[in-house]
Every structure is written in structure tokens, then in C-alpha cells.
């Protein structure tokens, strides 16, 4: 019997070892699964971080473009203001010239009639030339 007890004892020991090995393999498998899960979580967070970074870069670029467009609009506006200011400064000069022309025409109406007659003669010349070429004015 002692031989049988030794065999049973050896079988029990082997069964315990096998059980320990299986338990260790199970623990290793669980740890590997946790490691893989952690890697997936890390990849997910990295992907989210990259997406945020790209979004931030895109938004920064849009803001820079908007700022450049705004600066260009401001520059254009300033140029328009300067041009309008120059035009406003010319108005008295134009008004003065119109006033002078008006006074000349009031005091010398024959000058206007002479210019009108010259314009009619010139227009008739153009009309005749156009008719010769087959055009109608």
C-alpha cells in the first residue's frame, strides 16, 4: 500500500502542479488581456488627442486666414476713406469750376451757340461718313 500511496501522492502532486500551471496560464492570459485593453485605450486616447490637435491646427489656420482677410478689408477701407477724402477735397474746386462755366455761359451765350453749331457740323460730317460706309446713326 505504501507504493499505492506514493503513486496517489505523486498523482496528487502532479495534479496540483498541473492545476498551478493552468492557474498561472489563466492569470497570464488575464494580464495579457488587460495589457491589450490598456493598449486599445491608449490608441483610442492617442487618436482623440490627434483629432483634437488637428482640429486645433485647422481652427488656428482659419483664424489666421480670417485675420489676414480682416487686415486686407481694413487696408481697403482705409484706402477708400483716403480716396473719398481726396474726392471731398476736390468738390469745392469742381463746384468753383462749374460756377465759372455757368457765369461764362450766362455772360456769353453766343459762345455756347457757337460750340453747339460746331458740334452739329461735326455730327453731320460723321453721319455722312457713316452712310457712305453703310452705317446708320
The total tally of domains equals 1
Radius of gyration: 50 Å
Helix-strand pattern: HH
How does the major sheet shape up? none
- Tally of extended strands? 0
Low-confidence blocks of residues: none
Distance between the termini: 140 Å
Give the % helix.
over 70%
Mean pLDDT: 86
Q: What structural class should be given to the helix and strand makeup?
A: mainly alpha
Q: Given the structure, what is the number of helices?
A: 2
Note the beta-strand portion.
under 5%
Cα shape: rod-shaped
Quick rundown:
With 137 residues, the protein is mostly helical. It has helices at residues 2-107, 109-132.
Q: How would you describe this structure to a colleague?
A:
This protein has helices at residues 2-107, 109-132. The protein has 137 residues and is mainly alpha-helical. Helix 1 (2-107) packs across helix 2 (109-132). Helices cover 95% and strands 0% of the residues. The chain is built from two helices and no strands. The mean pLDDT is 86. It has one domain (2-132).
